[in-house]
Amino acid sequence: MHRIRADVVGARRATVVVVCLGACALVLGVTQVPAAQTGTRMPGTEHRLAACRVPRLVGLSLSIARDRSRRAGCTLRVRESSRPQDVSREPKRLASDQVIARQSPHEGSAAHAVTVWLRQMCVQSADPGPPTGEPFATRGSTELVTGLFLEGGPLRRAVRCRHGIPSPGMVNVIEPTTGKTVASQTVLSGQLARFPLRPGTYTIQGAIATAFVNDQRLNTLPRTVTIAAGTVVHQDVVANIR
Fold first, then answer.
1. Average pLDDT for residues 79-95, to the nearest whole number?
2. 99: containing domain
3. Is the pTM of this model over 0.85?
């Protein structure tokens, strides 16, 4: 009698174990659903995402580059770049006038994002005048180098600031204490005048052959310059126009 009860109890325990294993398997089956079925991203699968074909962005404005990147399916990352070199007299710049100076990766690459570097466009007069920072002095023979420049006119946009081209006309070097002209030279368009002089202080003034006011050649503003012995001094003269 005791043996029968023991066998029955053992059989019941075995049945409970089997039932528990089946239930646990069901629970594990619910909790271990693959990540792909739940919408989550498994680690290490980012590289499997489709990459965009990088478009050419260099030379475009920022707004156009954004639109082109969006249509290509690329994320655009913007970095600031150096400003255009200032080689004109007080050039004006507009922050909205920005163009793409360079990009990474290059056109045609497969990537998820494109990094671009911006360069502001230069807005300056149509006739921007001579370089800034004059007079320039270098060692050499005692000499004056000068040119005639027009400065002014309507504003224009360009990727880089620039300086003007020397105008044709007559350049005069004047001794300021006496008002006497000590040297004169006629120059062509794009040409500079060179005057070997004694060390001292001089006034430079010129007349531009291609610009007139009341049928008279337009005169430049006078500039005073001091030339030391063994020094070449570069000082241009300017006529302002509207």
1. 48
2. 51-125
3. no
